[in-house]
Amino acid sequence: MAFSGRAGGQQAFPASHSLARLQAFVESLQAGRNAVSSAAAEKLEVAVSLLTMPGTLSLEQVRSVCFYGLPDVTPLRKIYWMILLGVLSPHTERWPDELRSTRDKYEGYINDCIDPNIMQKAQVGGPRDANAASAHSIREGRASLSESRPASDHPLNRDRQGAWHRLFEGSELFGTIVKDVSRTRTDLAFFRSESWSLPDSQGSANGGSDAAADGHTAAGTSAAATSNGAASGPGPVSFVERLTRPSSHVDRMSRILFVYARLNPALGYIQGMNELLAVLYFVVHSDPLAHDEDPLLLEAEAFFLFVTLMVHQRDFFLALDGRSSATLDDTLEQYAGLLHQRDPQLAQHLDHMHIEPHLYMLRWLLLGFSQDMELPNVIRIWDTILADNPIAIPDIDTSLQTLPTAFYIAVAVLRVPELRSQLLSLHDREEVLRTIQHFPMHDIQQILSEATQIRSDDIVARRERHDRRQQYPRNLERRPTWEKAKRVGEKIIGTLFRG
Amino acid sequence: MDAYDYLFKFILIGDSAVGKSCILTSLIENKFKKGSSHTIGVEFGSKIINVSGKRVKLQIWDTAGQERYRSVTRSYYRGAAGALIVYDITNRDTYHHLINWLADARTLARADISIIAVGNKSDLKDKRAVTFLEASRCAQENEILFLETSALTGEGVEEVFVKVAKMILNKIEDGMQHIEEGLGYHGLFSGLIDPATMMSGVHAGARSLLNEASPAEPASRCISC
């Protein structure tokens, strides 16, 4: 198979590039070569010194550094996020190995997802290739096809198990993904496919100067030998071509989503995943020195960040299919209660217009606000969201467990005075919803500090409730039950009238 | 807050990337939003239009087109009085799926829902893959309205909404659409919501506006589903 042409004799790969860069950066800091403002410098020193401490990192510390926002110095954020999401372990000495295995695993996944037989078919059997490919490769291809496949296996056979079926299915999936990825964050030049061509897209022009690009060109040329000039054509051929030899960020992001969808058939690809990935992909690549890095390693890092992020987002995406989880419903209910506590006037106003939280929260929760803010703000807000994501909280007492941060941020957004007064002045359901959805969330600091405040107040309130319950268990049993009964009653009444 | 005689709920449905959200933006903001991303779940808009001397307020629910969002978007159909099924004239697949969307709308919204098929991107003339004639025949066979639009130039956009609103108004006048007086809480998910009930007791300003809207006849009407 063309793709894994270089997988065998892999030499020691510069997997620790980003770590080396971090080290160099710290040294340059110490030498005073980097101009950083004094406030930022302190923040930076804390963040860097934590990572460079010998031994095992304290996840608590990593979280607390990240929660209040990381300094915008690369590749710091990427490393922090990888620790928070569990792509890297807290054992710093293992990182080089972990990074290397990240890359190898990802390469393996790609090969698994692109069935070699299918690729061969696309290369030798594709309509555009027939003329272009050399007679030799056609002969070879036909021979291998007739040997390995029964006569029933042909392009028009829509047998679900058939390789051709999988090829068309894959092509369709990839097409859907590319379509969405190409219209993701197009306001940034970084994401516009035409403006970025990666070093490994230049064929063999790179020579031996760069180990990373070299590996890629080797694979690239061998693929090109069998599938001459099919790069720009539509259909299965170009799809396999783009998967095996991505030539832009759009191609690489599409490949990540393709591999993810293939490995997770239950979830597959759902619109919105592209938005999440874009943030992670950008953070991985926003390192100015990332150009020297092996593009496949960077892609693998983005892939694993995405996979682990999806563990947290899974419930929200599953809810789209009607596979709504009880926890999500419960969390939304808790959110509604929180809004009532924090801002009864606004909450009643929204209730009165029957604006249910899920109508405006769905996008925020699914996408972590990534469609509602400028990218730098999204990244800042994700520092907090990721830091707070409970990786594994022992389920001692659920009433003590706080809501995911996104919910506190949601309350904080509605509390922004400008938006709040606007909402209170509106009396039309659709206008209110439109106003919420189109509110430019610029003042991220204000939103975050409000969210943090709401969260810490909520923690206090939960503790108090918890303690009271322990003291007077009976008395307290009654109130929540009554409140719950009231809610259930309202729900039933609502359904009756609606129906 | 402007006064109006009727309130209709409209849904915008159709395949992904056919331009539903662009049609909505074009209607409401009179501009084309370039490079807009796909709709996650649902987006909202409202606008008052004049139809046969009546002021009609449209509440528009613009839905996500991707198949995977179908079960969420379906819950938004409820009580819609009008539906725009949008396809892309440069993409035959989106046209072929029209029939599925039609079935969805008729079963999930209300049986008497007024529907228009909208062929969007009419500005892309040289990429056209669906002819005006075949689409208009298909619409006729399925007893729905049909128009082509360009969200880019704004051509046909308002017309589409007016056309559907007019159809609903005609049904009301012919007595085919059942009219009832306000039904309080019932208004929650119905397509034609009683404006007075929605406002009652909340804001005097809004109410007085409603009162001066049509002093002779009750400003509030609710058409049940």
TrEMBL record, chain A:
GO aspect biological process, one term: intracellular protein transport
Listed GO MF terms: GTPase activator activity
Domain Rab-GAP TBC: 71-389
Pfam families per record: RabGAP-TBC (PF00566)
InterPro entries according to UniProt: Rab-GAP-TBC_dom, Rab-GAP_TBC_sf
Record SMART domains: TBC (SM00164)
Chain positions covered by the region annotation Disordered: 123-158, 197-238
Feature: compositional bias, Low complexity: 200-233
SUPFAM superfamilies in the record: Ypt/Rab-GAP domain of gyp1p
Protein name according to UniProt: Rab-GAP TBC domain-containing protein
TrEMBL record, chain B:
One term of GO molecular function: GTP binding
Pfam families listed in its UniProt record: Ras
Protein name stated in the entry: Ras-related protein Rab-4B
A cellular component annotation (GO) from this entry: membrane
Family that this chain belongs to: Belongs to the small GTPase superfamily. Rab family.
InterPro entries: P-loop_NTPase, Rab_GTPases_membrane_traffic, Small_GTP-bd, Small_GTPase
Compartments it resides in: Membrane
Origin: domain of life: Eukaryota
Entry annotated with the keyword Membrane: yes
Keywords, in A-Z order: Membrane, Nucleotide-binding
Main location: membrane
Key word Membrane present: yes
